[in-house]
Amino acid sequence: MSAVPVQYEFVSQYERVPPEAACEGCGVSAMLGLDHCHAHGWARGVLCMRCNQYIGSIDRQLTPRVSEDHFAALVAVRNRCPGCRPLKAADLERPGRRERENRMRKMAERLRCDLTISRLGAHATSPAIYTLILPEGRFEVLTSSDAALEFLASLEALASGEAA
To answer: Most buried residue, 42, 78, 125, 147, by most Cβ within 10 Å?
Structure first.
């Protein structure tokens, strides 16, 4: 692909993915396509299908769960669009699982809820189930730390009278 920015619609089908190409995000050489900015139409680089989905998350200000090097490569490809405000990896940082779970524990304690975090495997990075037992005896089972944090935040808002 040209080093000069080019509109996606003007790139011929032959130029889109050279046969010797590899994904600029992760390096695989299968299922490649030319990524482009949907907001401005500029071609940004050659990506595999998975990295194309990850870069879509970055465009929506979300952080995909990939290694730091992989994330930096995706941000670099995303920043090739001359119409987009350049991002730095730090712009999209999100707290790690341990920080989110510590925050959940503190929120649950303030709300007088019991919180149980059950790993679905022996490894510390295994997926988890978050079970909250509320003071009135009702319980909620959530399958992501983000969902559990969102649920606890809504309970805090209700408890403080902020909810509409």
So the answer is: 78
The closest alpha carbon to 111, from 144, 151, 143, belongs to 151
Task: Give the tens place of pLDDT for each residue, 15-55.
Answer: 567 788 999 999 999 889 889 888 888 889 999 999 999 99
**CA distances, 27 to each of 18, 19, 48, 51, 86 (Å):** 14, 14, 9, 10, 23
Angstrom distance (rounded) from CA 104 to CA 156: 11
Strand ranges, E, within 14-162? 32-36, 43-48, 114-119, 128-133, 139-142
Stated pTM of the model: 0.53
